[in-house]
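User: Show me a protein chain along with its predicted structure.
Assistant: Here is one chain, sequence first, then structure tokens.
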Amino acid sequence: MRAARFHGQKDIRIDEIDTPTAGPGQVLVDVAWCGICGTDLHEYLEGPIFVPQPGHPHPVTGEEPPVTMGHEFSGVVAELGEGVTDLEAGDHVVIEPYIIREDVDTGPESKTYHLSQDMNFIGLGGHGGGLGEKVAVDRRWVHRISKDVPLDQAALIEPLTVGFHAVERSGVKAGDVALIGGAGPIGLLTAAVLKAQGVTVVMSELSELRRKKAVESGVADHTFDPRETDVVEEVKKLTDGRGADVAFECTSVQVVLDTLMDAVKPRGVIVIVSIWGQRSDFDIHKLVMKEIDLRGTIAYVNNHPETIELVESGKIDLAPFITGKIGLEGLVDEGFDTLIHRNETAVKILVSPSGKGL
């Protein structure tokens, strides 16, 4: 089968590799659609990061480059391994793409398996990926979805779950006002979760296309261009001078974090959703004097079922966020290049590894 594999920095190749089979306790999935994530772009430009370093195999997978990429994907069950009896061939599924040590508790009550030692992701640390035509995944990480949810939209459930977990971390409640810095894919999907939970959403974003997408999709109540508008003052106007209850940093840009610190109310909560490649240098005195609660969030932990329910119930419509569909051969030129150099023109670009979806 064909798969897009990371060989090294700025070196992703479409390779012919052996088709996997479902081992005991596994599910073989025909990949329908796979989204291109910001993490994939960082690997391409700066990696290996999550991808193991050459000569240093990942301790769980035993793999090193080349590895198949792609961790935001949907598909159809093609084959069941020995012992898997609660799925059927033809079921539509999405993947919670974790690589976790076998001795870690990943049961339904766990809130920490995503923080465990040597945690990594399918499509980065090994075990195949969604940018291959098929992938074999342990049953634990396979989530069935309704066939009423189109498979292209289902590919966005993984990043949507990132937003769901960030919202959960914030402690926000219906009736609150939330400010989001950055209307990229994760910012928009975090906004979608907030709106589904009855929160008023304000977004600060430079890109006109993304601000327009936020409004047209119904996930933002107010959007502002920080080059033209004093976002802090506008938030205060909207909250009778109080400030936002919570804020979400989705850019890894210092000036955005500074704005959020000024815009939240005293004792407000700021959640850092983006992955920072450099140290931040914000005014810690301001954090102390306002008693701001600064929280980190990474990925998700037992959040897929609730996120899937939001989509299946119709409370969240993922269709507006799909702005491009390409084949595997266009991954770098049409996908990565667009998102790196013209990211203001796109939100989520999906790849059909087999080409059947095009």
